[in-house]
């Protein structure tokens, strides 16, 4: 049995959590002593969209199981205890290879299996149009193919939990219905769909919007357009990138007000995340710049983003710093709410009976510092630099 104590991220009360066999077995309010370390305690972060981290990429072949393991361990430092590796549009063979590597890593290592709640397949059944397609390779974009998807699901050992697609394809409704029958979440994204197509997709079973407001045309009609339509669909949960670069604060504010309990944060982090500022060459050609402010853009055009490089913690900090919501609200959008959406055991947060997945952190007015990350009751990361005063 292990015991952890801290200031509850919601209530501000000093609490003690006792864990055993990977679960919280007791939760008590206590009086903080002078000798107690003034740390906050909160549920572990859940990221539904991780493309890579610190130079390691789920979409650069070949990848072996060590890539999966190393990314997972590095994410612990960021407070991420559960996540979905995200595979983007690629050749059929490349997607198959990555799915197999992730599945093998989970089969061989129980820790990896606990941390990886599933796989997010972002493409290839997306819009072929410039703008909505984003950085996805044109030559691999295609109409939904159920037989191909079943093959991929078999290779992944049924680990594909979310698939991002565009309902503009004529056979998309049938595909969405089949996904719903198999408990695979269909998320609308990288789309140029009409209002009617979006409405029909939701009626067929689509449940989420992938990084809404991004992967879109630079110019849209005032109304209707596919962003408004998705926000208006009551049954759609919405993911947003709150790094301060992908969406203006006013848009973040509108999304949160409209979606309320159905708004979630994702990082959509690419493999430049966690790297030092500088100029980098990408594996698909061209150069990108990671600025000291944390923005990743194309070298030839600073106005065009080259992906997201900030983690969920940054998004939480941004929302709180800009006074768009409270810390507890931001934290829930990046932890218990995604857990609730996917019906994961982690949806219960710090409740008795929930998995012992939580973090201890310190905070200032604008910064959060992860001090310890606990996964399945085990301390998997500890910030030794704070102890040394560095």
The portion of residues assigned to helices is 25-40%
Structural class: alpha/beta
CATH superfamily of the largest domain: Metal-dependent hydrolases
Please report which band the strand proportion falls in: under 5%, 5-15%, 15-25%, 25-35%, 35-45% or over 45%: 25-35%
Low-confidence stretches: none
Give the count of structural domains. 2
Shape: globular
**Count of helical stretches:** 12
Question: Mind describing the biggest β-sheet?
Answer: 8 strands, parallel
**What CATH architecture of the largest domain do you see?**
Alpha-Beta Barrel
What is the total tally of β strands? Answer: 21
Gyration radius from CA atoms, angstroms:
20 Å
**Major sheet: arrangement of strands:** 5-8-9-10-11-12-13-14
Class of the largest domain, according to the CATH hierarchy? Alpha Beta
Q: What's the pLDDT, averaged over the residues? A: 94
Oligomer state equals single chain
Roughly how many Å apart are the termini?
Answer: 32 Å
* CATH fold assignment of the largest domain: TIM Barrel
